[in-house]
Write a structure and sequence with these properties.
The chain is an alpha+beta fold. The chain has 4 helices and 11 strands. It has a domain of 182 residues. The strands form 2 sheets. Strands 1, 3, 4, 5, 6, 7, 8, 9 and 10 form a 9-stranded antiparallel beta sheet that branches. A two-stranded antiparallel ribbon has the order 2-11.
Length: 321
């Protein structure tokens, strides 16, 4: 036999559950925007290509709990599939950033970086350079290749961190990862490599302990010291830097041989006869009334008329006797 209190308790529980279900269906909440990648203006790019380099097409930013990363798309003029880009990743923030998850600290490995290069430049055989290179931010390296249609491609990488002593003493654990993918139909490998020397990082990390660049460099010891001349032209004792930017090669203009027109020599012209003199005639001493006529020479072949030569100085007047 069921107790009377049990039925009342069960009925109350059902009514409470039904009321909660109805209230849940009628409640409203704020719409949240998930923290995913978003497009930002080019002025907010964390890194910029050098002046004269490829222009920025778009910037896609993704915020993390310990930093941020941006995919900066660059102008592309190549038959190789894919988009030129400059990717920069800042790691080492204090965790106050509005982001989802934290990015892991991954060191650069030989196998991993070549996998990135082949993924970024599909269909092109990339070869890693064995030469030590260094720009304003420290050492870097790159791989290069050429497509079947003659397009030149490079994939550069760089990890910017402070020195180990600075990491130990000042806890400079900040890190900046940089990746560059460039393919061009007319540029050379050296011209594309100039972008790795000329790009500029404009983003910063708050706080001195997250400084990935380390302390400021000391002043050159040769400044102000006698016996150390400094010339305006650095080509005499220091290698010239790689030129920033590149321009598409101009098409070659094929010159046609000039046609020489043959000039036919002019035929000799007939001598020009002067009209007879007019006016009163003075008789000559011998009684002749004809005046001597000047002789005119024929016009030479060059077309320039020569002055006519006369054979007489003029009429002779008889003396009174």
């Amino acid at each position: 036999m069921q107790r009377p209190g049990t039925f009342s308790l069960l009925k109350a529980s059902c009514l409470a559950a039904l009321a909660a279900l109805v209230a849940g269906c009628q409640s409203t909440g704020n719409v949240r925007h998930p923290n995913i990648a978003e497009t930002v203006p080019a002025e907010r790019a964390l890194a910029l290509p050098p002046p004269g380099g490829p222009s920025i097409v778009s910037v896609v930013e993704r915020r993390r709990g310990n930093g941020a990363e941006q995919m900066i798309s660059l102008y592309t003029s190549s038959s190789v599939s894919g988009q030129n880009f400059l990717k920069v990743q800042f790691l080492g923030a204090s965790g106050a950033n509005r982001g989802t998850g934290n990015a892991s600290y991954q060191m650069i490995s030989e196998r991993g970086i070549m996998r990135e290069a082949f993924d970024a430049v599909p269909g092109v055989q990339m070869t890693r350079t064995a030469t030590y290179l260094q720009n304003s931010y420290g050492p870097f390296s790159y791989a290069s290749g050429q497509s079947g249609r003659g397009d030149t491609c490079i994939y550069g990488w760089q990890q910017i961190r402070s020195s180990r002593s600075a990491q130990t003493q000042a806890r400079n654990f900040g890190m900046i990862q940089v990746r560059l993918r460039l393919c061009d139909a007319r540029a050379t490998e050296r011209q594309l490599l100039g972008i790795m020397y000329g790009y500029t990082i404009v983003g910063t990390l708050d706080g001195e302990i997250w400084n990935p660049f380390g302390g400021p460099q000391r002043v050159d010891a040769t400044l102000g010291v006698p016996g150390n001349p400094i010339y305006p032209d650095e080509s005499g004792y220091r290698s010239m830097p790689v030129a920033f930017g590149y321009e598409p090669a101009r098409p070659e203009i094929q010159s046609r041989p000039a046609r020489v027109r043959s000039v036919q020599p002019k035929a000799e012209e007939a001598p020009v006869e002067l009209p007879p003199p007019t006016g009163p005639r003075v008789p000559l001493p011998d009684g002749s009334n004809d005046l001597p006529q000047p002789s005119v020479s024929a016009v030479p072949p060059n077309g320039e008329a020569q002055p006519a030569a006369t054979t007489a100085s003029g009429p002779t007047v008889p003396l009174p006797e």
